[in-house]
Fold this protein.
Amino acid sequence: FLHEQGLQAQSATIAEIFHQFPPSLTVIDAFHAMEGNGPTRGTLVEMEIALAGIDTVAVDAVACRLMGIDPGDSAHLAIAAQAGYGEGDEKKIIFLGTQDISHLVHPFVRPS
C-alpha cells in the first residue's frame, strides 16, 4: 500500500510538471523503440514513427496507444488529463497526416 501511495505521489508530481513547465513542443522519436526490459535487455522494435505536438499529454497518450497501452493506465497521464493539463481522449486529439493510427499499433511486451 505504501509503495502504491508513493507511485501516486510521483505520478501527481509528473502531471504537475506538465502544468508548471509546459514545453512549446513535444517530440518522440520512435523510429527505433525498445520493449520489455530496456534499456539494456529489451527487444528492438522498428516502429519508424515520429510524433510531435504542442500538447505533451496528447503526444504521450498517442504514444501509449501505439504501444498497445491504454493511456488511462498511465497514472501521470490520467491525472494530467483529469486536471485539464492536456488532452488524453484520443477521440479529441487532432492528427495531421492520418486520423486512423490503428495500422501503426505494435503491442509492446511490458517490462517484467
